[in-house]
Amino acid sequence: MTTITRRSVLRAMAASPLLALGVPRLARAGAEFSYKYAHNLPMTHPLHKRAQEAVDRIRRESNGRLEVTIFPNNQLGGDTDMLSQVRSGGIELFTPSALVIATVVPVAAINAVGFAFSDYGQVWKAMDGPLGTHVREKIAKANLYAFEKMWDNGFRQITTSSKPIDQALDLDGTKIRVPVSPLSISMFKALSAAPASLQFSEVYSALQTRIVDAQENPLPIIQAAKLYEVQKYCSLTNHIWDGYWFIANGRAFRRLPPELQRLFETAFNDAGMLQREDLKQMNQSIQTDLESKGLKFNRPAAATFQAQLRQAGFYEEWRGKFGDQAWGLLEETVGKLA
């Protein structure tokens, strides 16, 4: 007997551009190109809101020739599911974290080297500059098209259920959820924690049931996913800067006429710049909001974490894995790491 689930219905709907999310046939009949875009964030997140504005702009300025339907909040599966679908062409667009796409394009994780960036000035200089160009070229070799501007996911912070993290030693033995990312696993192992890779869709329940004691994400994600309901402390470690690559299936992008390619990329790049500003403004008020919900904050110094990573050989290991060219482009912006 076949079991019908909500997710199986959504997947079937996504397979048909005429049925996606119940969009009426007549509303989509005039579209020359009908594309699907999936992401893992709630509809309240700035990424979704700005992406919707870009989608509306594309429909308007293409006179209905190009129409994009958004599937938010893991409706089409976890991160690895959606990455597989955009590679195969099951969906045309996806915004993976750099840590997620690095499972296919390893150098894409270079922006997530632990304690590399000290501020956003360094982040955008690198990722809008030669380092970002280098990563996009590598992504293209996986038959994916990465748009020029990364979207901001913010600096990542550690939340815990039992104690604040004041120094590197406090992570010793801590069971912490990390993305499905070799770099994140390596960094937290070097800091003597016990990292566990779980899909983002599993994080809340894993914390609630104490499968893990801690997790790490940017503040807007902690707020949007209501992780403050299952965590007590937030340590502002700024240990990783993470961003979203806006990627398209390479074949789907190349199918578009040149004028639609330009509109496609321009609309999402412009929206990404606005989303960066959204997160900047959000981060100025979000800590106050989370404190009002009971989350307790502390701000540890980076020095003990950096020292332990150097002592454990973390930086030397990842310089070898990323290669001298990519590592050199990173250090041109942030200074010597290893």
Automatic annotation (TrEMBL):
<dbReference type="GO" id="GO:0055085">
    <property type="term" value="P:transmembrane transport"/>
</dbReference>
<dbReference type="GO" id="GO:0030288">
    <property type="term" value="C:outer membrane-bounded periplasmic space"/>
</dbReference>
<keyword id="KW-0813">Transport</keyword>
<keyword id="KW-0732">Signal</keyword>
<comment type="similarity">
    <text>Belongs to the bacterial solute-binding protein 7 family.</text>
</comment>
<dbReference type="InterPro" id="IPR004682">
    <property type="entry name" value="TRAP_DctP"/>
</dbReference>
<protein>
    <submittedName>
        <fullName>ABC transporter substrate-binding protein</fullName>
    </submittedName>
</protein>
<dbReference type="InterPro" id="IPR006311">
    <property type="entry name" value="TAT_signal"/>
</dbReference>
<dbReference type="Pfam" id="PF03480">
    <property type="entry name" value="DctP"/>
</dbReference>
<dbReference type="InterPro" id="IPR038404">
    <property type="entry name" value="TRAP_DctP_sf"/>
</dbReference>
<feature type="signal peptide">
    <location>
        <begin position="1"/>
        <end position="29"/>
    </location>
</feature>
<dbReference type="InterPro" id="IPR018389">
    <property type="entry name" value="DctP_fam"/>
</dbReference>
